[in-house]
């Protein structure tokens, strides 16, 4: 999921984030990040569906 990041790298990143943002902000930051990723995936899915639909329409037009 995280490419070639190992456990020690993830712990280091989490530790740095904890120092920078503090323990009170991390849950809020995680929630915001999760929501942003979810919205991005949803938007990406919509774009793929639109492109697929446009391709089907173009193929039908060419075949007629």
Q: Could you give a quick summary of the protein structure above?
A:
The chain is an all-alpha fold.
Number of helices: 2
Compute the number of strand runs: 0
How is the main sheet built? none
Shape: elongated
Report the structural category. Answer: mainly alpha
Strand content: under 5%
Rg from Cα? 20 Å
| Mean pLDDT level | 86
Low-confidence stretches: none
Distance between the termini: 45 Å
Number of domains: 1
Q: Helicity, in percent?
A: over 70%
Query: What is the string of SSEs from the N terminus onward?
Result: HH
Subunit structure: Forms a complex with TatC.
Protein name: Sec-independent protein translocase protein TatA
Keywords: Cell membrane, Membrane, Protein transport, Translocation, Transmembrane, Transmembrane helix, Transport
Function: Part of the twin-arginine translocation (Tat) system that transports large folded proteins containing a characteristic twin-arginine motif in their signal peptide across membranes. TatA could form the protein-conducting channel of the Tat system.
Can you walk me through this structure?
Helix content is about 85%, strand content about 0%. It has helices at about 5-20, 25-64. With about 60 residues, the protein is mainly alpha-helical. The chain has 2 helices and no strands. The chain is elongated. The chain has one domain (about 5-64). The mean pLDDT is about 85.
Q: Helices and strands in order, then pairings?
A:
Elements: H1 7-21, H2 26-63
Primary descriptors:
64 residues, mainly alpha, 2 helices, transmembrane
């Amino acid at each position: 999921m995280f490419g070639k990041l190992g456990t020690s790298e993830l712990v280091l990143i989490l530790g740095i984030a904890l120092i920078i943002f503090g323990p009170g902000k991390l849950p809020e930051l995680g929630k915001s990040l999760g929501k942003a990723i979810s919205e991005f995936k949803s938007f990406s899915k919509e774009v793929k569906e639109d492109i697929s639909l446009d391709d089907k329409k173009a193929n039908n037009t060419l075949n007629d």
